[in-house]
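Researcher: Next entry: Glycine-rich domain-containing protein (Brevifollis gellanilyticus).
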Amino acid sequence: MKMNAPSLFSMVRQFRASLVPLLVGGALFLTAGVTEAQVPGILSYQGRVTVSGSPFSGNGQFKFALVNAIGGSTFWSHDASSTAGSEPTSAVTLSVANGLYSVFLGANMTAIPASVFDNSDVRLRVWFNDGTNGFQLLTPDQRIAAAGYAMRADAAATALSVPDNAISAAKIANDAVTAAKIPDGSITQAKLAFAVGGVSSGAQEYATAGTSTFTVPPGVTKIMVELWGAGAGFSLFGDGGSGAYSRKTLTVTPGSQWTVVVGAGGATLAEEAVAPSGGNTSFTSVSTPSNTLVSQGGRGAPNADGPPVPAQPDASADIKRTGPLYGEAVIGSVSPPLVATPSEFSSMVIQRFLSAGAASTAAMFPSEAGMSGYVLIQW
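Model: Predicted structure:
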């Protein structure tokens, strides 16, 4: 029996191009099937085989392996059973017409890994059985030229030349970007969510009784709002209480407007009269009035001799304090929780936030108005 292995040519299947079979008498073609989306582990093999000098026709059995130049190492075989260039165990049945046959190596069999073509010299080894003479090795092994290496080159190009904006967030694994991969100083304040207790980038205060409008600065989506209600008025025999304290972090829209109301202090009063209550301090969305935060002003006593009712903070506040029943002598700057010494018959209320840290004081007077509320907004 005489079997002739044809010479080897190769071509590259281009992106989205249909595969055109090329059949030339006595020739064998290897092509790498390459698509735009993914490099398949497939080589298209077309060849011609003769038996005793005549083209074979019928169903033939074939075995395939990719080996090194001397045939002593196996890089791949159709059933993954070949080692050291040996004959694979199983066979592939193909239809042969006038000596011509074709097969997609790697399709419906072990796929060909692109790493095979990390080797500079890869050769195709074929065994054939005509059904009568048993398996025979077709010689010589055929060297694979450009086709197989196009598979490897395309895989490398995909990894090394990623187009701009091609990688979306969905393609990045969770926890894949670590601190070591982020250059120092590359993350700005605008890219950080505001956290209560963190360092703020801006602040606005309102300390005068009345109504104002606060506009959320550009790029700001969270603010922390602190409200102090105004203090009640008092006299020696008519106590008033301190305003309540409320603090809350709000999610906001840049450019949105909010109404700020700073409560007025309770008025002066005649001796032994009921202490006038201080005004409420509030922060309310202009577009959604139901979205509001309120700290009550200090409450007046129900009569000249009784204690006032405690002022209430906003129920939705993250941190809240009821107003002390009497006036307070504040130690240092006012900050939550309030550090105060209640003293009956001394209800002049200090609600000032002193950013410089100077000490605030309270004193007892025959008749005084309560002090205004206060609003501090940070972002």
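Model: Note for the record: DSSP finds one helix and 24 strands in the chain.
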